[in-house]
Every structure is written in structure tokens, then in C-alpha cells.
Protein: NAD-dependent protein deacylase
Amino acid sequence: MTVHDTQLNKAVDWLAQSRRVAVLTGAGISAESGIPTFRDALTGLWERFEAADLATPRAFREDKALVWGWYEWRRMQVLSSEPNAGHRALVALSQRVEDCRLITQNVDDLHERAGSPDVVHLHGSLLHPRCFACGHPHVLPDGIPDEPEGGRSIQPPRCERCRGYVRPGVVWFGESLPTLAWSAAERAVRECDLFLSIGTSGQVFPAAGLHQIAAQQGKPIIVINPGELADGRSRELCLRGPAGEVLPALMARWSAIDP
Ligand SMILES: [Zn+2]
Structure:
């Protein structure tokens, strides 16, 4: 972690002055719990596939069992993972600010399992599949799915309403973001006093779009990410490091300054 004391103090100062905070999280915070990022997701049995070729409506039409099998494999990874110190620190943050709205690009449920309520999922969720034909939600059985026997394909379940095939509840390439989730995210950023971006480069839509709204409106922005960060704007504070280290350090500093 290369965050300096002065940066942490400044971040605490900004947070303490904010009544409404909008938080956006990306793949980085899930990766710290051992969930591979989308681009790194194809290992083992899935090595010779391209994520971009599996995550489309067309791929599902052409080979439902292959695509469903891949998402079941990813769901298995998610359910075998645990929330980390970064997820938990965000719960603590939400308890300190008057109005904290959490938006995520992640399709796992680690924020919910850490204790964050009302998470806005911009890219849907692996845990909430629905019918490909009629959109009716499908309830998955409890527990962690088994590895498919002798291969990677798994037949998707059928819709209880129309007998259509059930598809993963995530946003695929070529699909638009869920309208309600996007408008909730946009509203949260427009109404916030401070925008906190975690574990995302912020360069690609939708993260870039939300970042831009915050910047255009002159909101203070805090970015937490391990990679090289584009800095320079005066209202933008970059804390370089993993969320699981920076966020707990930030909350600890806040408690030390103002118990
Ligand atoms: Zn249906």
C-alpha cells in the first residue's frame, strides 16, 4: 500500500463533510476475494474459450448448455468465496454517513453477504437468473452447484411459467444495462456530496459515465485502485492500493480522528 498519511487524512476530511456518498465498486474488490475478473475467468476447462464469445445472447441461442455451464462454474466460484475487509469496511462506512448508496459492476453477492443492503447491480447478478423467453425470475436451489460430470456443459433449467430456457441474470455484450439500476446509479451520483470509486479503472462505461457525471458536477471524487491512476484534477483524490487494505485503513483513521 502506498497511501500516505496526508492522503488518508484528506479523504477522512472529505468523507466527514459529506452527508451523501455514492460508492461504485468494480472487479478489483471481488478479485481480492479470489473471484477471477471477467478476462481472467477462463482457466482450466475453459481455457480455450473467449469470455466475449460466451457472454452474448447469440452464444446462448447456439449452445445453451455450454453458456449455462460456464455461468454455473462462475457461480460456484462466487459461492465458494467470502467477502473481504474492503466489503466489510464499506458496511462500516454506510453506518457513518447519513446516506450511502452502493453501486456495483460486480455480478456476485459479496457486498450483500458482508451486510450491505440495497446494492444496485449495474450488470445484473449470477444469483438471479430469469427466463430467456418471458423474463420470469427463476429461483436457484440453495447451495453451491456441483462441477458438471465429465465436461463443462449443463442444461439450463426451464421456466416454471412458460417452459422456456432459463438464462443467467447478467448483462451480456450487446445488451443494455437494466434501466432501473442505471437510473438509480445516475441519481445516486447526481445527488451525492462525494463520489467514491473502488476497484475499477474508471475508463470504461458504465464506470466512466458515472465518474464523468461526478466530475462535471464538481463533486469531490476519491478513487481507490491498485493500478496507476490518472490524477490531476484538484477535486480528485487517488488512494493507490487494494480495497481490502485502503478502505479499512481509511475507516480506522476516521475512527482515530473522530471516534
Ligand atoms: Zn418463461
Summary: The two ends are 24 Å apart (CA to CA). The chain has a mean pLDDT of 91. The first strand starts at residue 20 and ends at 25.
